[in-house]
Request: fold
Amino acid sequence: MSHPSEAAQGRPAMVRLGAVARTFHPGTPDAVRALDGIDVEIPEGEWVVVLGTNGSGKSTLLNVIAGTFGLDGGTIALGGQDVTHWPEHRRAGIIGRIFQNPFSGTAPAMSIAENFALASRRGRTRGFRPAVTSAFRAELRARVSTLGMGLEDRLDTAIGTLSGGQRQALTLLMATWHDPGVLLLDEHTAALDPRSAAQVQALTADIVQGRRLTALMVTHSMPQAIAYGERIIMMHRGRVLHDFRGEARRRLGVGDLLACFEDARRTPADDVPPSPRSAVGTD
Amino acid sequence: MTLLIGALTIGLILALAALGVRTSFRIFGIADITVDGSLTLGASVAAVLLVGGSAGPLVATLAGFGAGMVAGMVTGFLQTRCRIDALLSGILVMTALYSVNLHIMGRSNVPLLHARTLATVADAAGPDWFGGGEVALGRWIVPAGDLALLLMVAAIVVAVALGLGWFFHTEIGTAMRASGESPQMIRALGADVERLRVIGLAIANGLVGLAGALWAQVQGFADAQMGIGMVVWGLASVILGEALSGTTPLGVALTATVLGSILFRLLIALALGFGLNPNDLKLVTALFVFAALVLPQLIARWRRAQATRRAVPGGGTGP
Reply:
């Protein structure tokens, strides 16, 4: 059911997952096959939305790409480089990341300026230069003022005193301070109130589309998926159940996605393609 | 007055150890008991170098710093690469260091009788600086050497505190502070959290080794027992400093730790003057830290209880 979209043709793959597998608690009664042979190729500049039931493995997918979890099998290549055995902090040079919990993406006791100083060294060496220089502060002011939240006048405020929405907006700017090869968004608006969520989502669209970033966005919201995903992947029990691209993706509506979900729920584990093993996923 | 100057000098020297304890305690959230061993390590290395005449006070002091750093790196290695619990790592290295220190010194106590130390340098410089063997400070007459030693130690502590403040604002120092608070974030931003922890513990124990090297020179000997209770002493200074300053920017917090150490030493000197049994010193220090850790909880609970009590008769407006 997977057709390469015309827009993606000719673009080199930014993310290439080959037979990626990960089991939690292997060899115990609690063994959980969270990823069961995932093959996905994402061309440069494509915005992919990952949907799935609870425990389908979508968060695990982002975590293995980032290197938070290792693999039991398979390979991961980012930007043509095999990173399967790279530790998380080394992959960070290619990856920008935003977590669901606004607390995870920032150092709460440190100032806005210091948090951004940390982000500005992503994937670069950290030496004995001052972290926050006046030149950096000037650029920071300019970039933060684009948020229209008035935060540019509070650069020395501890970031932990800000609201979840403000923090998530700042985290988005931090993760994309330098264009990342891949941007990983893990339900990054799920913990916010509706108004902040809409604000952060609009900002995400601005940045990802405006700078043609390659992005993977995990979400539970079908309208969000339909509105933003240039390609929609639906996961179930550690496998890719649907991969909508091109024309198939354009014809897709919220109702179709809901039908797919119902379908997935009714599908016995043994019938999930491609391999006929039973598995229960986790997030 | 001489007693006061002595207490100030020791308080300043131990402020270096307190800065080290603060680094592991406030950044990585561990009470690193390695410092009990690394203080003695710094002292023994410096003492042996000074007695042998193979190094002057400056080199011996720096060697104490370096030895402490190595001890901290070992603890960091156990914690990160060997995945040993932070507390146990410290206990292992501290215990091992006890034997190491005895080997370095060759016995349990090395006097610095005829060696050239920071103290003898100060004794020689004092009369030059102040134009006489004694100095009048208001009503008090103090030996010029003691005053010179106090000033030298103060200069070292100020320089180290400034250096530490500078380091924590560099790219690597900022990453280190974030790594304790928000490891998930800093890993996602490409910093090697484990390496930062090893470096952090090396710096922390280096400062403690530096304190040991200076302390040995000022008191005139190194002793295998001198580091016992040092982590609790350091925590007491950190907590006392924080009680004085509240939640503040980093620079103030470092200054507060130094002041906490001095103040605690003065309080101890005062208590001893009023007849406190020196054998009870460690007990009193431990009780102080215990009280400082428990009292805020009790106060918070009491306040909550008060608030509920007030809210109930008010007609159910409480939560």
User: Anything to note?
Assistant: DSSP finds twelve helices and four strands in chain B. Chain B has two domains: 2-276, 284-319. Residues 242 and 253 of chain B are 7 Å apart (CA to CA). Residues 281-311 of chain B form the longest helix (31 residues).
